[in-house]
Fold this sequence. Notes:
The chain is of the alpha+beta class. The protein has two domains: about 1-30; about 35-170, Heat Shock Protein 90 (2-Layer Sandwich), CATH 3.30.565.10. It has helices at about 1-30, 50-65, 70-90, 145-150, and strands spanning about 35-45, 95-105, 110-115, 155-160, 160-170. A five-stranded antiparallel sheet has the order 1-2-3-5-4, with helices on one face.
Amino acid sequence: MTSLNGSLAKTLRFAYSLIKSLTLTSISKMGFDMKSHNYSFELKNDVGELETLCQHLNQFGEMAGLSEACIHDMNICLDEMFTNVVSYGFDDALEHIISFTINLENHELTLTIEDDGIPFNPLEKKEPETPPDLIDVRIGGLGIHIVRKRMDELSYKRECNKNKFTMKKFI
């Protein structure tokens, strides 16, 4: 039974890679610009969605041909921002949808996270003070600082009762 499952898994992986290859070839032949990639998805405001977030980011990174380092930065930053939104962004216990848009065009990676939570501009949060000895660093409170260090441009706006936080990285 195990070898049957192994054979089935190999066959499914091959079929997936073949379909993916044929799809990319077809798109390329239709004249689409393969230098531009757009990807959108939505998650519920539940920390249990972090694994799904990671899967989406890895899928986009693979599709767009991003380096491991770039995919890693994308994962760290969106993980931090998503966790902040889920942990602090809502003043009720209702289910909310958090939207993500990723765009890669002309070596500019743009990541946008949008939610209907309470208004919060992470750019107004002051830089944390870092103690001289790492042993004295407290856990938490460094997420936005990490995002600032890993991304090249950050912007925030509140429109239509939604927070829209955009991060850009030039690759």
